[in-house]
């Protein structure tokens, strides 16, 4: 994968994390990726507080009925070019909650998803790999314009 | 000249907001700077877990229960299986009881260290957050070595556990425990001897023993107020009745009980040390034998299909007592399943803790009960029946400012 990435990044990647009804498992692994063992901040990957500042949307959890339209609005607020990463099995398929009456997910039925990260929860390495993939997508989009 | 009549504004916050880590919605009613009223809307994370449970068989529910909360991913399925074992009269082999203690105490170490980091973050000590989360990785490594996963462990089975600890695994466990014994002194120094921590946490968020009993506080929150309450000792489930340990109250370290935030830090840190001791005792005393009463899951399911009755499973999770109720009615799936997590009990004690406190102390006081995230983001100030709410970002900023103002 390293071959497809440029040697130096044009900009730091800012990530917005949105919980659409997750169990905290994926969320603590995202924080673990930011902490010293994995330390993604050294690559300029940083969590931001607003979707309007973000390049990448990290979305965790199977989408509950109350949150479906909010997720859509968060997605629409992000500036182009943007990438969406669905973290964890819940958002990909519904996982153990698939038959619950309160779910309208998976995430890709609500908003377009670029990278699917599987695992329950995915390991921090896996999340970093997913973010790097999204980075490649953004670099390609930028090269085209 | 006509003067405009002063009215209040409606200010919605959430359910998706940078200050909120989990979705929850507040509707504030503001009068200038003052917040006069608030309405809280919950249920954004409602996934229908208990209903889904009634569609599945008990072994499938173990994996569902594991995903109620990512941080307590061991105590929920274990409390569920305790309840089912009680209904079906399943005898757990002795070795499995010891293995269950080891995994439970390992989860407690992970959870308390995670909490210590969050507490440091709340008063603006982000370097301590990173320090503690780095220490936590070592416990996660051991969890992964023993169970195969970092967060969701998948180790629980009705009537035992799914993986054994063989003698060749002992050196790695001993090494990790040794690491924690060494860093424990460092943690103790950082949290308990530091002047800033002492100034911020002593006599702050006091919960008296009477209030703790009256409001049914559980776990470290109750013990820090001097209430000797611990399901591990009171009920003696698993192998806890064979092990040598006692209630952790802050007077062991400080000589007296204040019931403040500092005491809650003391209790949690001493519990890390206690958990290390318990794992060591288990490794030494563990008898040989089977690790699960019925190794064939299909046979177990066939047995559970013919059982009816009600059962309760109680165990001491890192945050306090977790309680599962199960009713089986001779069918594939249980007739009813009810879960009560410790955070429910620890919300009411916030009221006496927060009354007459400085606003900047609220984040650390609220975090001192180790609530689940969706509870952390909601704060009440109770003064003369006047209730006002503030969002977490603002509180965090005020908290950091107070730390800066201190002259240690």
Polypeptide structure, described:
The complex is a heterodimer of chains A (145) and B (408). Chain A has a single domain, classed as 3-Layer(aba) Sandwich (Rossmann fold), CATH 3.40.50.12280. Helices cover 32% and strands 14% of the residues of chain A. Chain A has 4 helices and 5 strands; from the N terminus they run βαββαβαβα. Chain A has helices at 25-34, 68-77, 89-93, 124-144, and strands at 14-19, 46-47, 56-60, 83-87, 115-117. Chain A has a 5-stranded parallel sheet. In chain A, helix 3 links the parallel strand 4 and strand 5. Chain B has 408 residues and is of the alpha+beta class. Chain B has one domain (49-344): Cytochrome-c3 Hydrogenase, chain B (Orthogonal Bundle), CATH 1.10.645.10. In chain B, strands 1-2-3 form a 3-stranded antiparallel sheet, with no helix packed on it. A 3-stranded antiparallel sheet of chain B has the order 6-7-8. In chain B, strands 4-5 form a two-stranded antiparallel sheet. In chain B, helix 5 (126-147) packs antiparallel against helix 6 (170-193) and helix 6 (170-193) runs antiparallel to helix 12. Chain B starts with 8 loop residues before the first strand and ends with a helix. Chain A binds chain B through residues 18-29, 31-32, 35-37, 49-50, 61-62, 64, 66-67, 70-71, 74, 95-97, 99-103, 120-121, 123, and chain B through 15-16, 18, 21-23, 43-49, 51-52, 55, 63-64, 67-71, 73, 114, 129-130, 133-134, 137, 140, 150-152, 372-373, 393.
């Amino acid at each position: 994968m390293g071959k497809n990435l440029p040697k130096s990044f044009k900009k730091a990647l800012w990530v917005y994390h949105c919980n659409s009804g997750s169990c905290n498992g994926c969320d603590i692994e995202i924080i673990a990726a930011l902490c010293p063992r994995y330390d993604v901040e050294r690559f300029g990957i940083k969590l931001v507080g607003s979707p309007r500042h973000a390049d990448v949307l990290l979305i965790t959890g199977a989408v509950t009925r109350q949150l479906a339209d909010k997720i859509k609005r968060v997605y629409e607020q992000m500036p182009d070019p943007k990438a969406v990463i669905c973290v964890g099995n819940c958002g990909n398929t519904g996982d153990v909650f698939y038959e619950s009456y309160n779910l309208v997910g998976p995430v890709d039925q609500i908003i377009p998803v670029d990278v699917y990260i599987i695992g329950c929860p995915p390991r921090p390495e896996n999340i970093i790999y997913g973010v790097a993939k999204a980075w490649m997508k953004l670099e390609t989009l930028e090269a085209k314009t | 000249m006509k003067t405009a009549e002063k009215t209040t504004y409606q200010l919605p916050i959430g359910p998706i907001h940078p200050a909120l880590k989990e979705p929850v919605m507040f509707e504030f009613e503001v009068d200038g700077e003052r917040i006069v009223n608030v309405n809280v809307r919950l249920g954004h994370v409602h996934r229908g877990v208990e209903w889904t449970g009634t569609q599945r068989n008990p072994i499938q529910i173990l994996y569902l229960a594991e995903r109620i909360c990512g941080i307590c991913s061991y105590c929920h399925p274990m409390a569920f299986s305790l309840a089912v074992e009680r209904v079906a009269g399943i005898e757990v082999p002795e070795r499995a009881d010891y293995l269950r203690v080891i995994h439970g105490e390992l989860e407690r170490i992970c959870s308390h260290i995670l909490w210590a980091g969050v507490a440091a973050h709340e008063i603006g000590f982000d370097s301590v957050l990173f320090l503690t989360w780095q220490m936590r990785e070592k416990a996660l490594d051991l969890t992964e070595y023993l169970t195969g996963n970092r967060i969701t462990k998948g180790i629980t089975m009705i009537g035992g556990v799914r993986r054994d600890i063989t003698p060749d695994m002992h050196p790695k466990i001993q090494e990790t425990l040794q690491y924690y014994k060494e860093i424990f002194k460092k943690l103790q120094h950082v949290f308990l001897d530091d002047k800033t921590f002492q100034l911020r946490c002593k006599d702050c968020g006091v919960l008296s023993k009477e209030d703790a009993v009256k409001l049914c506080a559980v776990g470290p929150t109750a013990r820090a107020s001097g209430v000797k309450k611990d399901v591990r000792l009171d009920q003696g489930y698993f192998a806890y009745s064979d092990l040598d340990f006692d209630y952790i109250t802050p007077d062991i370290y400080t000589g007296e009980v204040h019931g403040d935030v500092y005491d809650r830090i003391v209790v949690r840190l001493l519990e890390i040390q206690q958990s290390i001791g318990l794992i060591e005792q288990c490794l030494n005393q563990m008898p040989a034998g089977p690790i699960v009463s019925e190794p064939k899951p299909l046979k177990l399911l066939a047995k559970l299909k013919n059982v009816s009755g009600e059962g309760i499973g109680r165990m001491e999770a890192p945050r306090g007592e977790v309680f599962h109720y199960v009713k089986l009615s001779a069918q594939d799936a249980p007739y009813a399943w009810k879960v009560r997590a410790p955070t429910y009990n620890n919300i009411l004690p916030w009221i006496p803790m927060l009354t007459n406190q400085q606003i900047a102390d609220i984040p650390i006081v609220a975090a001192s009960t180790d609530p689940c995230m969706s509870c952390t983001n909601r704060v009440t100030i109770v003064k003369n029946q006047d209730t006002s709410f503030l969002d977490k970002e603002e509180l965090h900023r005020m908290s950091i400012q107070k730390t800066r103002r201190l002259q240690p």
